[in-house]
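Question (not urgent): is this output format expected?
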Amino acid sequence: MDAHPRSEPSSASARPALFHNRHGRHGRPRQRLILIALGAALAVLLTSAIVVVVTGWRPGGGEPGVSAPAPPATRVGAGAPGRWPAWGFTHTQNTVDRQQGPQQALTDLTAQPIPQVTPIMGWGIDNPMPRPGEFDWSSMDRRMATIRQTKGTPVVTLCCSPDWMKGGPAGNTDWSRLELAVEPKHFDDFAKLAAAVAKRYPDVRYYTVWNEFKGFWYPPGNRWDYAGYTKLYNKVYAALKKVNKNIKVGGPYMVLNSNAPGRQNGPSELTGSWGSMDQRDLDAIKYWMKHKKGADFLAVDGHSMPTQKEIRLNEFQVLSKFSDLTRWLRALGKGLPVWWAEWYVEPVPSDWTDERRGAVFTAAMMEFVRGGAASAYYWSPQTTTTDDCPGCLWSGTARGGGATPTLGMLQNFARWFPPGTPLADVTSSNPAVRVLAQRQQMVVVNTTAQPAQTQLGGSPLALAPYEVKWISR
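Got this back:
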């Protein structure tokens, strides 16, 4: 979907999103922001650079950043209570709730329950409120039934909104407009819809508000409309807490983009061997932190690779971005659990083998744990029930429909590394072999395309190329 960006923060005009959405598929950030006129852009950059150098001020209303990141975690899920929904996945367009199958996938999901996320509209869920006061819960009822059937912890993403809340006609659903923002005059209506969701599904205790700031971009300022999003968030937060004060609500679900080393497009307060963060994304989070009514967790998402797709960095080395960001967010949030609503590691296009993909996925999860993340949700790739799909959580019916190693990996993290689990200090003699351990179990990954030998606590271990091993201690 090619869209016209938002014109001003308080405008009631159409607010399409920045990213493409194809056939209901989640739009990862594959386009850079629209270009501002050259003269204005140079003036803004020059002024910002002078102010930063002289005063240390940062964009985003001058909210302070992080003086020092939080330390690496010694326990899983820093800031999260026990039974927190830590490691799971998000349902997308083609998933197991379509005709309640494939059956083997449902069986395998039930064998080790994990948290399961669903939006309220899009990605397989129909418009829940096509007209004011008129509800259609049929598709969401079906998905919630699947999550309950497989004993998963239900998590709801409050995105996206009915057309009539974003400038379209009542009774119509134009899926090409899925990622437009709610109009400010309908913020209260969206909060009422969120409350209706909470009343219909009283077993749901975890909600994220909106998704990747979709539609909330402010071109004149070359930044996010973080004030507009925060107003929407605060109304939804209040509405959900009024339904049940024990509901956990989080935001801002900001997408965190980074630039490759040497390609920094402006000052950034967070850099690493993987590059530098886009300061505009960090500013949006800082504004939300200062002006939110309340929050039970801090939600973000992002890709380990930089936005410059022509630059290919080592896929294992850039994973430290996840732990670096998590530690920065933990310090900013002052104890709020850090929640990765989505995460991505694979470049597009990709020639990865299943073994290589599995090794990178597992190593990414290890970085979330080490950084102190409380949750990380895998965005389930989409396929039909018959096609094969790299990175999918279950195979198509033609291949039996059962769990893939990717689902098994998530289930192993849920089983062996739940929140509160003390981490054990086990080192590998070979830096190409990574290890994460607790008292009873450890997971080991060969990050190379060659066989590897290592010593773990004095015991030798041989690994095949890109092999992942779960080992009892």
